Amino acid sequence: MNRAFLLLSGIVLLPSCTMAPAYEPKSASALGVPDQWSVPATPDRADLTRWWLSFDDPVLGQLVEQAAQSNLDLAQATARLRQAREALVVSRSSLLPSASGSAGYRRTEPLRGGDRTTTLPDGSVVTVGDGGTDSFSLGLDASYQLDLFGGVRSSVAASRAQYEGAGFDYATVLLSVQSEVARNYVLARAYQAQIENARSSLAIQDDNLEIAGFRVQAGLVSSLDAEQARASRAQTAAGVPQIEQQYNAAVSRIGVLTGQAPGALKQMLAAPKPIPHGPEEIAAGIPADVLRQRPDVRAAERNLAATTAQIGVSRAQLFPALSIGGSLSAGATSIGSVLDTITGSLFASLSQLIFDGGRTSAQIRSAQAGAEGAFASYRSTVLTALEDVENALVALRTAGERERQFAIAFDAANTSALLARDQYRTGLTDFTTLNTQEASLISARNGLVQARADKATALIALYTAMGGGWDSTVTPTAPQ
Q1: Which residues pair with 107 in a beta bridge?
Q2: What is the pLDDT of residues 380-422, one digit of tens each?
């Protein structure tokens, strides 16, 4: 018996090899990553882990962090991460032997008086008297498939890469949720500002309509002025319900993103606040930073590693498979003596694929094609990440320029509208001129609000494109 188990231990410790291609993460140059951005950018890199704090808006920060805890898309990503962890546990179990035990009891009663003989499970023969006989048995079976050619280890490597990839997928969802919350918050504040602008314009247009009415009654102008004033006011008023609908949609979206009912935050956000204003520019680092900072890029790299390991799983099927096992059994007529006599056996089997109609070869080619596709997907993800960063950098710069120009336009339009309003009161200009100046003022005011919102949105997009919002030095793992 001791010799058998020594033999078993020796076989388990036999060296093995792997059929998977050697995998090394691709360099930045191999992925087509340039040394620097093609648009103006600061080469330094700031800490973007909690980028929303740069807006100095406590409400925004509260909503982003609440979404990170309660968002249902994140809950689904967490569940997928847990599934990937358990799949890794299942895969690792194939590296270990499997064992099973059994126990049995049998009571034999004579059909008629007299003794008779019966055979126990261990092969012994007993005589059964009129009182019947008890028999007890125990068994232990163990088996182990040696991973001589690394098929199991390649499967474990693939599962590990898939688990890590699921962690990066979770981080990708997290960044997306944070970005959506912040973007809709900016939209909500922008719509509030547009509603306030519309109400201010309506108040001015009410005054214009009243002035036009007085001048018509005095016979100074025709009723055309009053009708123009009425039409202008109605057009401004008609735009308010649409803005209110857009505001409601943004607030409802924030509610759902934070894991609540659509109307849960309406009271909290009812009081108008300024559009959050972040820094004028941020340090974008170098293009190679996206390889470690963007979770979607790292998830694509882990998918490439997993598909590469699958090639080893398929190749190992072409080589012999060695299985070993053993069993122990014991039996007696009383429970106290069941371990007095123990018998054991040891076996080994070797199998080799001879013919399968080309199935295994096709599986290998399929795994190789999958790895090639995964590499192309990895490169595509990297290039898309670079595109996102550059587009966000340009959008932030152009939005800032638009904000400056609209500020000038608003100041000039406000002065022109005040002058036109005074001149119309004194009869020095006609209502058409006043109406034109009022329309320019409304356009400039709304343009300034939109430019500020676009600037904040572009900054959020840049933070997200650069992979801000998570700790890139730690691979996310499933909660216990």
Answers
A1: 134
A2: 999 999 999 999 999 999 999 999 999 999 999 999 989 998 8
Neighbours of 346 (CB within 10 A): 15
- CA neighbor of 338 nearest in space, from 105, 48, 119: 105
pTM (2 decimals)?
Answer: 0.86
* pLDDT, mean of residues 331-358: 85
> How many CB atoms lie under 10 A from the CB of residue 244?
15
SS3 135: strand
Are 464 and 385 a contacting pair, CB within 8 Å? no
Contact 293, 382 (CB under 8 A): no
**CA triple 465-295-367, angle to 5 deg:** 125
Candidates 203, 192, 188, 191; CA nearest to 441 is 203
Q: Give ∠ CA 143-148-152 in degrees, rounded to 5.
A: 75
CA separation, residue 50 to residues 241, 367, 476 (Å): 36, 40, 16
Report which of 299, 353, 318 is spatially closest to residue 77, judged by C-alpha positions. Answer: 299
Contact 136, 338 (CB under 8 A): yes
Phi, psi of 364, deg, nearest 5:
-65, -45
Give mean pLDDT, residues 4-25.
60
Closest CA to 282 of 470, 42, 92: 42
- Higher pLDDT pick, 115 / 192: 192
As given in the structure block, the two tokens for residue 255 are 């509610």
187 membership: H or E segment, kind and range: helix 151-217
Q: How many CB atoms lie within 10 A of CB 14?
A: 10
- Mapping DSSP to helix (H, G, I), strand (E, B) and coil, where does residue 137 land? strand
pLDDT given at position 222: 77
Longest dimension (CA), the chain: 138
Return the structure tokens found at 352.
């080799």
Cβ 149 vs Cβ 319: under 8 Å: yes
Residue that the structure tokens 């056996």 belong to: 345
Average pLDDT over residues 359-386: 95
Residues 6+ apart with CB under 8 A from 112: none
The helix (run of H) or strand (run of E) holding residue 65 is helix 58-70
DSSP 8-state class, residue 55: G
The helix (run of H) or strand (run of E) holding residue 381 is helix 359-425
Residue % of the chain over a pLDDT of 70: 92
